[in-house]
Write a structure and sequence with these properties.
Order of helices and strands: EHEHEHEHHHEEEHH
GO molecular function, one term: ATP hydrolysis activity
GO biological process, one term: endosomal transport
Keywords: ATP-binding, Nucleotide-binding
Distance between the termini: 30 Å
Protein name: Vacuolar protein sorting-associated protein 4-like isoform X2
Radius of gyration: 24 Å
Number of domains: 2
Strand order of the largest sheet: 6-5-7
Pfam family, one: AAA
Helix content: 40-55%
Largest sheet: 3 strands, antiparallel
């Protein structure tokens, strides 16, 4: 079978190195997906050499990003979707679980997201967040950081007093008893005169308090049973 006729060229901007999944999972993907398709010794018209790989796992663990990264490595993606629905489970000789991020993965995810969001935390605080996000998916962690970024905006919205910052000459929300405070609301200030406070570790903690893992124990048990049913032990 000539697989080239089932493929379209498309540019994918997600690199495999950017996907935060366990290193052992990436090695399985490279072994069973990238190597067979990139190998010059694999005949393009040999259906026996083409491997169908099933990526499975809880929502938010990075399956879609990983699939996009794989497509980027191969510079192609299938558009022959009808053949997928005709496939039976035995057509997937390799089934790779995309698990919940472990401590190392959560550390990397949090470190990257917090840095990109300009939220400064100490090493001790970062480790605290790693422990507090056990059971969270990668998507859950993104939501936590987004919630933290919303905290300063909520502060601006609720503030009844502002004080002018001497360095920037902009107004920042403050408590009524702050020296130099002026009673006003954010609607009385132009955007260029308003100093948006940066999110802090306390904001991250507040964001975390509002969030819960989206994957429950029952769902994880289903994936465990699926692995047992298909003898998946890697």
């Amino acid at each position: 079978m000539d697989i080239d006729r089932f493929l379209i060229k498309k540019e994918f901007k997600v690199a495999l190195s950017e996907i935060k999944v366990p290193e052992s999972t990436l090695e399985l993907v490279k072994k069973h997906v990238l190597v067979p398709f990139n190998s010059t010794s694999t005949p393009k018209d040999s259906s026996e050499d083409v491997k169908h790989v099933l990526l499975f796992g809880a929502p938010g663990t990075g399956k879609t990003y990983l699939a996009n990264a794989i497509a980027g490595e191969l510079q192609s993606v299938t558009c022959y979707y009808t053949s997928f629905y005709e496939m039976k489970s035995e057509k997937f000789p390799y089934r790779i679980e995309i698990p919940l991020p472990d401590e190392s993965d959560r550390y990397k995810l949090l470190e990257k997201d917090l840095k990109e969001s300009n939220i400064s935390v100490t090493q001790e605080q970062l480790l605290e967040l790693v422990k507090s996000t056990e059971g969270f998916t990668g998507s859950d962690i993104v939501v936590v950081v987004k919630e933290a970024l919303m905290e300063p905006l909520r502060m601006i919205e609720k503030a009844t007093h502002y004080v002018k910052d001497k360095d920037t000459n902009k107004w920042a929300p403050c408590s009524p008893d702050t020296p130099g405070s002026v009673e006003m609301t954010w609607t009385e200030l132009s955007p260029e005169d308003l100093m948006e406070p940066k999110a802090t570790m306390d904001d991250v903690r507040n964001g975390l308090a509002r969030c819960s893992p989206t994957v429950n124990k029952d769902e994880l048990e289903l994936f465990r049973q699926f692995k047992g049913l298909h003898n998946i032990n890697y």
